[in-house]
Amino acid sequence: METGRKRTRTVSWEDPFEVPKAAAGRSGLELLRDVFSGKLPPPPITATMGFRGVEVEEGRAVFEGEPGEHLYNPIGSVHGGFAMALLDSAMGCAIHSTLAAGERCTSHEVKSGGVRPITVETGRVRCEGVVIHRGSTVATAEGKLVVASSGKLLAHATTTCLIIK
Fold first, then answer.
1. Could you write out the DSSP letters of every residue in 38-68?
2. Alpha carbons 10 and 69: distance in angstroms, whole number
């Protein structure tokens, strides 16, 4: 059995500890604005999986990505982990954008559902996360992943995060 040509992919990233070091005394929104604008390096997962933060405001974050062959699963489509990583990032950053200086958050629960398969032919995807509720100890957000060119829904999710003072 002959297989296709071997493909390679080289990934580079910057020091992932620069952002936590820069967080002291800054709100979540201030920190995320610097990451999204390139003043601070993005987390390595964005380079590894091929997506990036493109918009952030209080209670809302948007990521875009390009599904590639390197993300395929054995059934011939992009692994659901790509969609989940985008959804988790958008929803988590939406919540993070509401944090005051000195606050942190961590995921408690995430629920997701796929609507249609993602392939290389899908093209660029866009994921928006929006805060639904922000309390003093718990925050919830929802996310939608769509085809950037058409707005067709690919997947959706909700998350609950714990707020740590």
1. TSSPPPHHHHHHTEEEEEEETTEEEEEE---
2. 14
Which of the four pLDDT bands, split at 50, 70 and 90, describes residue 137? Answer: very high
Contact by Cβ (8 Å): 113, 156: yes
Rounded to two decimals, the pTM is 0.95
52-97 pLDDT per residue, tens: 999 999 999 999 999 999 999 999 999 999 999 999 999 999 999 9
Nearest to 158 by CA among 135, 132, 137, 136: 132
Q: How many other β-carbons are positioned within 10 Å of the β-carbon of residue 110?
A: 17
Partners of residue 158 on adjacent β-strands: 111, 142
Q: How far apart are CA 90 and CA 143, in angstroms?
A: 7
